[in-house]
Write a structure and sequence with these properties.
The protein has about 300 residues and is α+β, with helices and mostly antiparallel strands. Helices cover about 60% and strands about 10% of the residues. The protein has 11 helices and 8 strands. The chain has a 4-stranded antiparallel beta sheet with strand order 1-2-4-3. Helix 2 packs across helix 3, helix 7 packs antiparallel against helix 8 and helix 8 packs across helix 11. The radius of gyration is 35 Å and the shape is rod-shaped. The protein binds zinc ion.
């Protein structure tokens, strides 16, 4: 199931409590329907839950009965009877003869509570959202530029700040930062989906932090191993040519311990001395040894 479907299924479960909000949600769906004119209203969706929701909205808000029909892969609700379309137009304050329908009549959204409901209806018909495994993205598409602009200004009033673009003739409002996507979902009635996105983000950040730490430790380990290998090679070359006697007395314990514990870090190796010596002290002795070896080489 796509994440958009998950979100829409959650939105379809929001109870229809206030008549003003039910009408607002129906209005959002109608404005973003395939066809919304005085001759015909046609809403189509691939999501069965959305089809049932729209059917319930139309029935409750306008007393209009529209049965979803299967058309190809989609469910479609179509109204062509003048009397039914008339009921909807009257309730939305539209002139029955008016052809200009893809225009947001803010009077329909009379109360503050209605704006989230309206945006829910819009998203159900025309929205998609990327899942937690992808980059944050939520968008709403319309064929009508003025409607796109009006919806944008409505969102701005709700302190949502969508961006606007045109893609293949479609007018798109979108969010691509995680907090805005989460805010939109929470506002319109999908807090669970918003939470899912948030949790995924936290988990991803945590994983990145751990990876960075592991990488850092690995790098240090590699560096230490390289240094030990250089020290051992230096010791070996001196020993091969001149034997242990080439090392001054005070370096011989270091030589023996380095050869005995080739994988020790400096800190580990320093504790093997009797009595243990400091890390800088050991570092100094190893430096002397490698210097001695390079002198012997030349
Ligand atoms: Zn309301």
């Amino acid at each position: 199931m796509s994440f958009s479907t998950t979100v829409k299924t959650e939105l379809c479960r929001v109870p229809m409590l206030r008549p003003c909000c039910t009408r607002a949600e129906a209005y959002g769906a109608l404005l973003y329907a395939s066809v919304f004119s005085h001759r015909e209203i046609r809403l189509s969706t691939e999501n069965a839950a959305v089809a049932r929701r729209v059917q319930a909205l139309l029935s409750r808000a306008f007393g209009v009965d529209a049965q979803p029909q299967q058309v190809g892969r989609k469910k479609q609700l179509a109204l062509t009877e003048e009397s039914q379309i008339g009921l909807i137009f009257d309730a939305l304050g539209y002139d029955r003869k008016n052809h200009v329908t893809y225009h947001l009549n803010r009077n329909v959204l009379e109360n503050d509570c209605c704006i989230p409901a309206f945006l829910r209806g819009v998203f159900l018909m025309a929205g998609t959202v990327a899942g937690p495994e992808k980059k944050s993205h939520l968008e709403i598409t319309s064929a009508h530029p003025s409607l796109c602009g009006e919806t944008m200004s409505l969102m701005l009033d709700e302190r949502l700040s969508p961006k606007q673009t045109v893609r293949r003739g479609a007018h798109v409002l979108y969010f691509k930062d995680a907090p805005s996507v989460e805010d939109f979902l929470t506002l319109t009635g999908a807090p669970r989906a918003a939470m899912e996105l948030m949790e995924a983000k936290v988990e991803k950040n945590l994983r990145n932090t751990i990876n960075r730490q592991v990488n850092c430790e690995t790098a240090n380990l590699v560096k230490a191993t390289d240094a030990a290998a250089r020290q051992i090679a230096a010791i070996q070359s001196v020993l091969d040519k001149h034997g242990e006697g080439a090392f001054p007395e005070n370096l011989r314990e270091t030589v023996r311990l380095r050869l005995s514990y080739p994988t020790d870090s400096l800190a580990e190796l320093a504790t093997r001395f009797v009595p243990p010596i400091s890390k800088p002290g050991l570092s100094h002795r190893l430096k002397k040894i490698t210097e001695l070896a390079s002198r012997e080489d030349t």
